[in-house]
Amino acid sequence: MTKKEINEIKALFDTIHDCGILQLAGCYVNGEKAKVKTFRDSFYNLPEEEMYKYLEIFRKTLSGTPGKNLQDMSFVDQDNAKFGKGLLQKLRKSELKDDAALEEFYDKVIETYNYVGNYLILLINETYDIPGVTTDGIEMDDASDEIYNYILCSICPMKLTKPGLGFDDDLGEIHTLRQIFAVELPDNGFLFPSFNERSSDDSEVLYFSRKTDILQDAFLEKVLDVSSTLPAKQQKEGFNEFVSVVLGKESSFDTVLSIQKNLKETVNNKKQEAAGETVFLDKDSMRGVFEKSGVSSDSLTVFDKKFDEQFDMQKIIEKQIESEIGDETVEVEGSASSRHSDYVPSIKVEEKLLADNVAPIKNFEVRNKNMVLRVSSKHTDIIDTRIIDGKKCLVIEVTDDMTVNGIPVENK
């Protein structure tokens, strides 16, 4: 989904009169993964104040940066009727009125969702009468082309309110406040089906994650059954490691600087072609950057092999689990087997990187144990390398506008 399409659906939650929500359902789960309370009701039966609180949650579920907080994810098995797309279709077509389907969904979430503490699973069903649009982008309210019927899921942590004193209006006295579990804004959620090209697309979901470095892999695999890209943090760290391994002894300052410049140029060109929408870099795009930067054929051979290995999510998760539980083994029916294999999901992760996760957006940074140097990525040409007294040095011109800890220095 483009940013414009996401905002079009998000705008439906600005007022209670235009939101069009048909049904609200939810399940409150405690820290022992037990269902404390389930509920289902017409959204417009709620008090108005509560409706606005819910709308804030739904808006947040469609907030953030596309490609980071909001990711388009395709179903691995488009024909699976038991879970993933099949279960979501069942929920949507029943307008959340099939209690058995709701219980099945809640059970699957509780089984796979990785969270320590209490949380709330919210589901809404909404119908959007998609307005037609003129060639110059003006909406025509009386010219609907399609009805978009969808479900939105929000998974919200519930935190215990702080203890303290408060005023009791009924008694007119100060008392200790009663602590309760309050619903916070969502950590995760999804929209199904996607709203691609302003039309319903049931081959995908739009997945929301507040924390871009955490992937709810078991939930994505066993509940939604979708493929994904790597989380932002793993993309950045993985890319840095990848460049270092590929270059090997070729990892000179000039070569790395050239890669950074060409990478930024490639991203800027792609963003112009995409008219400001989210830009991804695949294997071919990245290889082109390395070739343009003068990387040797030997290193490019390493590139071809290492790219597939570096961004293989299965191997990344295995490494993370091994670092947590080591090589501990357990006996399974008389034979020893590694414990970590029980935790590794089979979720498919697409080999593409969000451009903003790996490209130098604002600053080019040079660092060692004694120094940090940041230069605008637009002006890396002010840095030069020279041999001075037999040592390779970074050289930066002293200009008239230079300061040291805010104190102007004379250019003499």
Description of the molecule:
Strands 1, 2, 3, 4, 5, 8, 9 and 12 form an 8-stranded antiparallel β-sheet that branches. The protein has a two-stranded antiparallel sheet with strand order 6-7. The protein is of the alpha+beta class and 412 residues long. It has helices spanning 3-10, 48-61, 85-93, 99-112, 217-224, 232-247, 253-273, 283-292, 297-310, 313-325, 355-358; strands at 21-29, 35-42, 70-74, 118-133, 139-160, 165-168, 173-176, 181-183, 188-192, 194-196, 199-201, 204-209, 280-281, 329-332, 335-338, 353-354, 363-368, 371-376, 383-388, 391-396, 403-404, 407-408. It is 32% helix and 31% strand. It has 11 helices and 22 strands. The relative contact order is 0.11. The longest helix has 21 residues, at 253-273. Helix 6 packs antiparallel against helix 9 and helix 8 (283-292) packs antiparallel against helix 9. The radius of gyration is 26 Å and the shape is globular.
The mean pLDDT is: 83
Can you count the helices? 11
The largest sheet is: 8 strands, antiparallel
Q: Please give the number of β-strands.
A: 22
Rg, rounded, reads 26 Å
Class from helix and strand fractions: alpha+beta
The rounded distance between the terminal residues' Cα atoms is: 55 Å
Unreliably modeled segments:
327-346
